[in-house]
Amino acid sequence: MANTVADFIWQRLQEWGVRRAFGYPGDGIGGLIGALARTEGAIDFIQVRHEEMAGLMACAEAKFTGEVGVCIATSGPGAIHLLNGLYDAKLDHQPVLAIVGQQARTAIGSHYQQDLDLQSLFKDVAGAYVETASAPAQVRHLVDRAYRIAKAERRVTCIILPNDLQVAPMEQPAREHAMTHSGVGIEMSPVVPDTAALTRAAEVLNAGEKVAILVGAGALGATDEVVAVAERLGAGVAKALLGKAAVPDDLSFCTGSIGLLGTKASSDLMQGCDTLLMVGSSFPYTEFLPKEGQARGVQIDRDPGMLGLRYPMEVNLVGDSAATLAALLPLLSEKQDRSWRETIEASVVSSHEQIRGMALAAAYPINPQRVAFELSERLPDQCIVTADSGTTSVWYARNLSFRRGMMGSVSGTLATMGCAVPYAIAAKFAYPNRPVIALVGDGAMQMNGLAELITIAKYWRRWTDPRLVVMVLNNRDLAYVWTCFRLVESGFVAIRLAFQTEPG
């Protein structure tokens, strides 16, 4: 039996499968830190340099493992610092549990030092579940509900713990009125639409002569199924930024990234198709999708709220990407006319040549696209690549070619600066035997990366494969800020390449 409330919390999280928590110590979580040490390594405490990094690492843990990322922060400013990383998780639909300290229960509401209304502070980012503990017997169901909701709904949850409660003796709920007796565990079964819905989707896809597929982060576990459906339909596959690793870039019908950071092949695919299949993506830039009315549409997403949001789909399927595509495949007819596929493949070859030509263009002191292009051919098998927001995202999206088995991520919807290094650190803890590469601009490196090199220095000896490469692209500018401009009269966004063509 756990001695204190804090001891119980870590014991309970261990029963849920938690093996790691990212955070920074403070007196508002002294009881939690002490209890964490008493787990004797059963739950590993990864000390970061700033609480924002703990939130970003927890988000990355969720992205790379599919499990709930856990982060902890002290009361007041520590709790505030977590928010950016938690919003990164919220907007990219990642399961994260934040545990934050609070002043003693007797001080709450008294304008005491670091006495903030944390319940209100976290209500938006952790709206799925945010609760403040007030009694030991309450803590059991707070932990169970917070973890279960984060896991099942892929959302951010938060538990607020007053510091005096953390060190109070633990009490299990009594068998009496107003007590709740919660338990550990959840069985996550893939959701598959019924036969009628799948049949309607198949009718739309079978009727199409020029099928385009757009995949996002929700398709990362459905590579084989996406490829099989694309082959059956003679379709091309474009990838949203968070879905870069969903389909290997060496497939002849993979057009690469789409949108502001996309390829001409992806643009041609979308503008030429008569049918769109969207899988696990909330890609926001609708101007890069087919014109409304141009294509019939089918969408698959586990979140009903994301269905039919970007394009008026004819059939909206709530379901797991891999399981739904697997159930849909037997209903799809083999496309006999392969002229559309041949058009796509020719466009892919042309795009590759264009990207290669841009990368090999002479520049002073160096063309950043050349760096990414050369790196692409040297990426180790099974590596994990993280990229920061800014021009590094452009080179990551366009110039890096992912092979099967590689992983990668960026801050997608939030597009926060300073994510690449903490993402890379989290990736190394999740997969200590895999090489990890972080692509970082000099602005982002100054913002967050430099301090987190201390974290790398502290922990790298734990990793089976010590390779964590941080590549800094130093152009002495916040290039993406001034190179991205909107041409209102033509209705699209152009990106000016951020490198000099000659000295001076």
Short précis:
With 504 residues, the chain is of the alpha/beta class.
Give an overview in words.
The structure is a single chain. This protein has 504 residues and is an alpha/beta fold. The protein has three domains: 5-166, Rossmann fold; 195-350, 3-Layer(aba) Sandwich (Rossmann fold), CATH 3.40.50; 362-495, Thiamin diphosphate (ThDP)-binding fold, Pyr/PP domains (Rossmann fold), CATH 3.40.50.970. The chain contains 17 helices and 18 strands. It has helices at 5-15, 30-38, 51-65, 77-91, 118-121, 136-153, 163-166, 195-207, 223-233, 264-272, 321-328, 339-360, 368-378, 391-399, 420-430, 442-459, 479-483; strands at 20-23, 44-47, 69-73, 96-102, 129-132, 156-162, 211-215, 236-239, 254-257, 275-279, 296-301, 315-318, 384-387, 407-409, 436-441, 468-473, 484-487, 492-495. Strands 2-1-3-4-6-5 form a six-stranded parallel β-sheet, sandwiched between helices. A six-stranded parallel β-sheet has the order 9-8-7-10-11-12, sandwiched between helices. β1 (20-23), α2 (30-38) and β2 (44-47) form a beta-alpha-beta unit. The N and C termini lie far apart (70 Å).
